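LOG
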Amino acid sequence: MYVGRDMTELSMLPKGEWKKSELAYFHHSLQQIVPYLNAEGQSIHREIVEEIENRGGLNRGEADYTHGTKTVYD
């Protein structure tokens, strides 16, 4: 379950100020409904993807005893 700032609050901030977990959560959420997004929704999703790419992606390169390689956005 996601515990964090909602889209209403985040929409007032530049994507550069979003936490990585927020980017990952909303990317995943919007990715599920891409066929139903209007132009504004598609634009927001594209900005999120671009910010994720600018930060080097979501994947962890290495696992350790406290984290796996899969990004968890909860």
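LOG (cont.) second protein
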Amino acid sequence: MDHALNKVIELRESGFQFLHLRDDAGQLDRIMAFKQRRGFIDSILFWSETEARAGRLPAVRDSARPAQAVWIYEGPLVEAVDRLLDLPEPGARNAPTLMKATASDLAVVTTLPFKLKLPPGAIA
């Protein structure tokens, strides 16, 4: 548990924000961390040390279609955090850019209790 907790702290120190998502009974169900980066949102959703899903999604998307990620990973929390933090900066050489996987549970824009608003032409 200490190693997983250290990884969560590493996310926070890297500028990720956190949401505690609750089930219908009000119990903590999962935790989401997200960070906006140059037109993309890196996010991770985790239920336990052994179950996490991380991805990079465009910050702006068509809300009529399911969210699609340019990169996605499912596995243990520690591995997911390492892979997410190792992703090249958006726009850098070798950074993922092609839409490939549906990632509706990582779509921070539809999960947040507020909307991310950017001025026209802004780069997140």
